[in-house]
Amino acid sequence: MKLKTRLLKLIDATLGLLLCRVIGYWRHRSGAPEIAPTPAPASIERILVIRPGGMGDMLMLLPVLRQIKHLWPDCELAIICERRNLDVLALFDLDHTAYAYDAHPVQLWKALRSTRFDLCIDTEQFHNFSAVMGIASGAPVRVGYKLNPMRISLYTHLVSYDVDGYELDQFRRLLSAVDVDPGSGSLHGALLGNPDTTRAMPDPKLIAIALSSMNRYKQWPFENTFTLIHTLGQRGYTVVLLGGADHTLPEAELSQITSLPHVRNRIGTCTLAQTAEALTHASVFVGCDSGLMHLSAALARPIVALFGPSDPRKWHSPDKSSICLRLGLPCSPCSVFGYQKLCRDVPCMRSISAETVADAIGKLLPSSSSTNTPSS
Questions:
Q1: Which residue, 247, 203, 204, is CA-closest to 225?
Q2: Third-level CATH fold of 2-176
Q3: Which pLDDT does position 93 carry in this prediction?
Q4: How far apart are CA 177 and CA 171, in angstroms?
Q5: Domain 199-364 is of which CATH architecture?
Q6: Structural domain boundaries of the chain?
Q7: Whole-model pTM over 0.85
Q8: Which of 11, 28, 142, 210 could, after both became Cys, cross-link 292 (CB 3.0–4.6 A)?
Q9: Contacts (Cβ under 8 Å, ≥6 apart) of 174
């Protein structure tokens, strides 16, 4: 997955950049419309939303997709995303058509050329190919961020992007370009109402943990993770380990953790729907800034979130049942658009102690289990 992601970024930075410049120049020289009148709501029948990126980005977008269907209930909604996010959309009770650009590019191209879209909303912040997709859609109204100067000629409506602002609010801003009130609110509870993910009652003795990550800069050190899980076992709690197959810890470390009698290992063994179901059983989710943290927020689960290189102002859903832990070192947050400062030992994550996390868990656990709550 890392190699594929790097390859896609390289192609975007070379071929994608070239296409943006060529298409923008050609449209200018040919006299193609550079602006478009804001469409009347009743005239919008087909809407295309473009969302490259990971699971967290797609989950953050879900409230905006719901708002689009509320504003235009009869519209045909098409979504372009990465293949890994098809399962995220499947969790959401939403009438739509999804295209995975990294799995079926030919099918996507045919769909773009054969469908007359009225409105294209590009939620990608910086990369180039999403703007090219917007042009290929033929939509007369194309909304995008005024951030990457190489692609702004491909949009008819530009929206400012706050690199420090809550990501869901940035997505909502795109709707304001077509005279729609963007609204407010967080990701908290966005998936509630789906009967497949809300039927379980939380177990007051069950803690869900997902502290491994594909991004080593976001990963909590093994020693801290083991200490926390061991402490929870001493206090009478059961721990379920969650994560995708690409989040698996080194074999020796995973064996050491799973040898503890109170640990259930479900890393790499669950579908996303099964993972969502497991989260609804847990009283607290503990994890780094990741897709599963956002999924827990969308399911309204209490969360202890560990932030290091990424910015909690952008990625942490504000809610009283969610605790954000970070050290606030002078060099953090350093992550911007998936890139971060090179770092040898990642002190912003390493220095968050197991005792601090255990104390935060105790603050979120149901009062009925307070006598067994881990403490620092």
A1: 247
A2: Rossmann fold (3.40.50)
A3: 85
A4: 11
A5: 3-Layer(aba) Sandwich (3.40)
A6: 2-176, 199-364
A7: yes
A8: 210
A9: 64, 121, 122, 123, 143, 144, 145, 159, 182
